[in-house]
Amino acid sequence: MLSQLAELFDDPKTISKIQVKLPYLFQIAELDSSRAGKVGMEVGSVREKIITAFLIYKFGVTNIDNNIPITEAEVDVKVFGSPISIKTVTGKKANGVKLIWTVDPTKAKEFLNKYKPSCDMLFVQVNWEGGKGGFYYITKETQIKHFIKFGRKGYIKLPKVGTNPRGVEIANEALEALLTDKDTKAIPIVWKKQELNYNVYDRWVEFWEKD
């Protein structure tokens, strides 16, 4: 367990800041990633940047490495040199969390045979419908424990043949076990959208207007 990250989940000021600011920032992320009222897949990358920015704010830019090669399937950022995976999902239930994005069935099977949890995870469940969700810190050790418990085929959910879900997922039952594990750190969040006077093009227009 990365102690610096774990401590954030016990700090009242940090907890309050996350509970207040994360819904607002994720709402902005959705607006920036939407077209004709539909949120695009790129929202995941924007959310990841928001979480990374939070880590930079808390620990300083010199202690955060976000220059991670795209070939790294699981690692999104390094905190004090330790690799961290950042994952977010939207819905009343925490499911559909991708371990790897691929539509190639051969690559999916190769991943199934080789995968083992390799780093700690920061996970966010966004729930605009029911309101309740959370921000979680799941250690590598906790993931490995449940990976062994469920077994490779019970922990990993392959895409169904003939469908195009774009990735290999953590099985729903395994994810629920991770989130409710006694060693998982959690900050509950009530997800409520605000009435925002926000236009995604305003800042770009302002840039063009400058001499």
Task: Please tell me about this protein's structure.
- Helix content is about 40%, strand content about 20%.
- The termini are far apart.
- It contains eight helices and eleven strands.
- The protein is of the alpha+beta class.
- It has a six-stranded mixed beta sheet.
- The radius of gyration is 18 Å and the shape is globular.
List keywords for this structure.
ECO RV Endonuclease, Chain A, alpha+beta, 3-stranded antiparallel beta sheet, 211 residues, globular, 8 helices
By DSSP (H or I, 4+ residues per run), the number of helices equals: 8
Structural domains: how many: 1
| Uncertain ranges | none
Separation, N- and C-terminal Cα atoms: 50 Å
Profile the largest sheet. 6 strands, mixed
Strand content: 15-25%
- Briefly note the CATH topology name: ECO RV Endonuclease, Chain A
Q: What is the strand tally? A: 11
State the helical fraction.
40-55%
What is the molecular shape?
globular
Which strands sit side by side, in order, in the main sheet?
3-4-5-7-8-11
Overall average pLDDT: 91
CATH C-level name: Alpha Beta
In short:
Helix content is 41%, strand content 22%. With 211 residues, it is an alpha+beta fold. Strand 1 and strand 2 form a beta hairpin.
Topology, pairings included?
Blueprint: H1 3-8, H2 12-32, E1 34-35, E2 38-39, H3 43-59, E3 64-65, E4 77-79, E5 82-90, E6 98-100, H4 105-114, E7 120-126, E8 132-138, H5 140-150, H6 152-155, E9 156-157, E10 168-170, H7 172-180, E11 185-190, H8 202-209
Parallel strand pairs: 5-7
Antiparallel strand pairs: 1-2, 3-4, 4-5, 6-10, 7-8, 8-11, 9-10
